[in-house]
Predict the 3D structure of the following.
Amino acid sequence: MAEIETDYLVIGAGASGMAFTDALIADAEVDVVMVDRRHCPGGHWNDAYPFVRLHQPSATYGVTSRPLGTETIDDSGPNAGFYERASGVEICDYFRRVLDEQLVGSGQVRFFGQCDYGGRDAGDHAFSSRLTGETTTARVRQKVVDATYLETSVPATHTPSFAVGEGVKLIAVGELVDVTEPPSGFTVLGAGKTAMDACSFLLDNGVDPDKIRWVRPRDAWLMSRSSWQPLDLVASTVESLSLVLESLALAENLDDLFRRLEACGALLRLDPAVEPTMFRGAIVSPAEHQALAQVERVVRRGRVRRIDTDRMLLDEGEVATDRRTIHVDCTAYGLREVAARPIFEGARITPQSLMGGFTTFNAALVGFVEAARDDDADKNRLCPPTVYPSKAIDWVSVFEGGFRVITRMLEEPDLAAWLGSCRLNTTRGMNDHMRDPRIQAALARWFEHMEPALANAAQLRH
């Protein structure tokens, strides 16, 4: 049995673990051991469907020490006018390079791939190789970092929760690229980001919208991509956030809040006749929004319980299907819905969401706070976790939490400086555009409405 020592043991080398470790070693002279059950870093991106892309700009994703992509604005396609978005293949390659060159290359990080973490035994922690069975014990001098707490479920690795009869054509979303014969139609199962990507893929490849049926148990509020752009497009982001604060400050109730958010363009819906009940943080461009709205064959009868060759049984009835229909499974839950827990707990750190679904930014911020502060109570004050959203009302908690975190950070000179320089921060570049009238007007609106917005958010949540 091998034995090692380290300051930090990071369990999981997915996006969160990578961003945390990168930020930690940038400001702390520590030794880090990373353990992952996969042979390489990147987490769920290694299992993603072939046509997956980031919903946010590449310029605000990854780790702080290395750019992802070229920070250019697309001039064609559904993302035209916005900063480029990396594909899954590009992201996997990026994280491999980060591991080799930024992390291991620093001399501060060791990586153990294809290993299962076995927990703590007699004061030490252990992990075992999936290839050799050899167990390694690690004496951790400072802390264990659980970067798997919000582990992601993706279509390629999850098991459908519904029954499937013999002869039914059911495929994971990634298998759409392997279809060789036109079916009678496509039935997309699921209401989240993956289902949107599946519909977009089919539409982009010339499938008639009438050939697509979308089983959508819940309609979702979507965010506009124009509201989440950094650098030279940051004015639109600051303006949108200020309008969000104004809406939050003036809303009389939840219905009024969502009317205001939709009116100012912060939130979008696919069907103007249906009130969304879900918010999961999906981001779309105007072109994507317009394309997805073309899919009008929407089934709203709850979740699928069973599929046979002639019918689908749902929570609220059944609909007809046939043997030649391809049913596309997009029902994996994505980020796991778990209760929030304190991020800093003695010898354990549990990275979680602080400001919505911007996973790597949240994890990097936790890593920097760990390096910059000594007291757990102070760290937890600065980094209160927010539960990953699901229901429409969760929008309030996400944005209230994000604005509170930003306010506290800006009151701390070192944290404010880090935010200003961090490449993962969506408002990066704002200081270079302070003469822009849009930013000046937006900041005035921001300062006017911040305090009443936070006070009203607490009322709207109850």
